[in-house]
Amino acid sequence: MLLRGNASTDAPRLALDWDAERPWLHSHAERGNDQLPKKLVQLDRCVSIPPRIGAPGPFCVRIYRFSQEKLSISCRKRNGFGDLKMKKYLSMLLVGVMALVAVSAAQAGAIDDAVKRGTLKVGMDPTYMPFEMTNKRGEIIGFEVDILKAMSKAMGVKLELVSTGYDGIIPALLTDKFDMIGSGMTLTQERNLRLNFSEPFIVVGQTLLIRKELEGTIKSYKDLNTADYRITSKLGTTGEMVAKKLIAKAKYHGYDNEQEAVLDVVNGKADAFIYDAPYNVVAVNKVGNGKLVFLDKPFTYEPLAFGLKKGDYDSINFINNFLHQIHEDGTYDRIHDKWFKDTAWLKDME
């Protein structure tokens, strides 16, 4: 609480002195014989603060202890100097504003950073047909690649694809190796705890490629769920997650890329390959050599989306609006048909 005199300009200013040998309060008034409040029992400290350069006079700051009350500071101004409490409040407010500005600058979004840099860096594992894959000339092409090219064009920047192993792609994003993940990533609850995701740009599901000898015997994933069968998929994918969760009794072995896993089935080392439908519909002919059967009914629901760091809502907003735009203006349908209805791109892979 503040110890103050009367409101009039002639009110006395209380001057309090400390007697080291007599530790109780002595007081006098510079004008008159005003009495101090009864609860004021002891003066702990009296400090006179020199004025800052240009200030009209010093502060007189006194700390009082009241019975059964917390320490309070009384501050009186001299020669018209401003109120200390207000100055302290304004200083704290200024510090808070500066801190908010600094935090905002430190948390600039991936899309804003890409625009300033002139390049959108996207991490992907280019082994997922027909989303991202490497053609015979060493170029990364695919459905998702074309969507990202359209996105970078809308931003007015260049697209840089950063080839990254799928099992390490999330740590690479979190350590700033690129701006976002665009690698056929399924939006799962587990991943969503670590990343923010855009709205899905396509929905797929897990399907099976089985050995031709098992046609008629294996009709769904449930038929594989015994120790008699060997199954495979790609490491770190939802295919692997589903295999371990829904077909847990079968023997599982994963591979670093899809083609190695499919060839395991072609060569009779595994009985089934579990993976996304868009990949399997291509792989059954391109890799199968007539030795595989495609069970094309998906048994999971898997939305694919772009992944970004947690809290990057400005970038999520931009990407979602971009996806809405290309769905409405025909761009999405054109890209989709190129990769899922036309097979001309397969010649580029031979």
Task: Give a written overview of the molecule.
- It is built from ten helices and 20 strands.
- Mean pLDDT is 80; it is low at 1-49, 58-82 and 101-106.
- The longest helix is centred in the N-terminal third of the chain and has 23 residues, at 84-106.
- A five-stranded mixed sheet has the order 16-15-17-14-18. Strands 3-4-5 form a three-stranded antiparallel sheet, with no helix packed on it. A three-stranded parallel sheet has the order 10-6-11.
- With 350 residues, the chain is of the alpha+beta class.
- It has helices spanning 84-106, 110-117, 143-155, 169-174, 189-192, 238-246, 258-266, 277-286, 313-329, 331-340; strands at residues 14-17, 26-29, 40-49, 59-66, 72-76, 119-124, 127-128, 132-134, 140-141, 158-163, 180-181, 195-197, 202-204, 206-211, 230-234, 251-255, 272-276, 292-295, 302-304, 307-309.
Number of strands: 20
Global outline:
globular
- Side by side, the strands of the main sheet go 16-15-17-14-18
Low-confidence stretches: 1-49, 58-82, 101-106
- Give the biggest beta sheet: 5 strands, mixed
Percentage beta strand: 25-35%
The number of helical runs is 10
| Amino- and carboxy-terminal Cα gap | 84 Å
Q: Whole-number radius of gyration? A: 36 Å
Spell the H/E element sequence: EEEEEHHEEEEHEHEHEEEEHEHEHEEEHH
Topology (SSEs and partners):
Elements: E1 14-17, E2 26-29, E3 40-49, E4 59-66, E5 72-76, H1 84-106, H2 110-117, E6 119-124, E7 127-128, E8 132-134, E9 140-141, H3 143-155, E10 158-163, H4 169-174, E11 180-181, H5 189-192, E12 195-197, E13 202-204, E14 206-211, E15 230-234, H6 238-246, E16 251-255, H7 258-266, E17 272-276, H8 277-286, E18 292-295, E19 302-304, E20 307-309, H9 313-329, H10 331-340
Parallel strand pairs: 6-10, 6-11, 15-16, 15-17
Antiparallel strand pairs: 1-2, 3-4, 4-5, 7-8, 8-9, 12-20, 13-19, 14-17, 14-18
